[in-house]
Amino acid sequence: MKLTNTDFIPGYEIKEALGLVLGNTVRAKHLGKDIMAGFKNIVGGEIQEYTDLLADARKETLNRMVNEAKKLGADAVINVRFMTTQTMGGAAELLAYGTAVKLAKR
3-state class of 80 per DSSP? Predict the structure, then answer.
């Protein structure tokens, strides 16, 4: 499955647009990791616990989006975007979305 944040894939033409596909997950902070992150906030530097949390969330949202595209018979997802929003204190949703398409080699 090809994924791109552009509206085209070099060497291919879009044969058919199958529609919007998305994947999302809601993640909450872990209390123990949040305490460690609080210490990092005082002394500065990367908060690795949050970096890891967001990396896992991105991976999961992409997997869910790709699975939706596969169900439609897509070869690729174009215009892939991410969006995030806080759903409640200490929890956030990460959403990946794009357009599922069928491709033809040029």
Answer: strand
Cα 14 from Cα 105, distance rounded (Å): 9
Q: What's the CA gap between 50 and 81, in Å, rounded?
A: 20
Q: Report how far residue 74's alpha carbon sits from residue 19's, in angstroms, rounded to the nearest whole number.
A: 10
User: What gap in Å lies between CA 77 and CA 82, rounded to an integer?
Assistant: 13
Distance CA 43, CA 20 (A): 43
Full-model pTM: 0.85
Domain annotation for the chain: domains and CATH numbers: 2-105 (3.30.110.70)
For 6-38, write each residue's pLDDT tens digit: 999 999 999 999 999 999 999 887 655 555 556
Report pLDDT digits (tens) over 74-86: 999 999 999 999 8
Query: Which runs of E-coded beta strand occur in the chain?
Result: 2-3, 12-28, 76-88, 91-105
Alpha-carbon torsion (11, 5, 60, 51), positive or negative: positive
